[in-house]
Amino acid sequence: MKANQRDYAQAAKRAGANCRLFFFCGQDEAGASAAVAKLIGHLPEAGERVDLSGGELKSDPSRLVDEARSTSLFGDVRHILARVSGEEAHDAIASWCELVDRGEVTYGWPIFIVATSATDKSRSAKLLIKRDDALVAIFYPPDLRSVTSDVRAMADAAGMRLDGSIAETIARAAGMDVRLAQSEVDKLALYLDASPRAPKTADQAAWDAVGASTEEDGFMPLVNAALGGELGKLPRELARMREVSLNPVGVALAMERRAAQLATLAPKLRRGDDMKQFLRANGVFFKEHREVGDQLMRWSGGKLERLVPRLADLHRSLLANSQTAELLLARELTQIARYAAARR
Question: Among 46, 55, 269, 274, which residue's beta carbon has the most beta carbons within 10 A?
Answer without folding.
Answer: 269
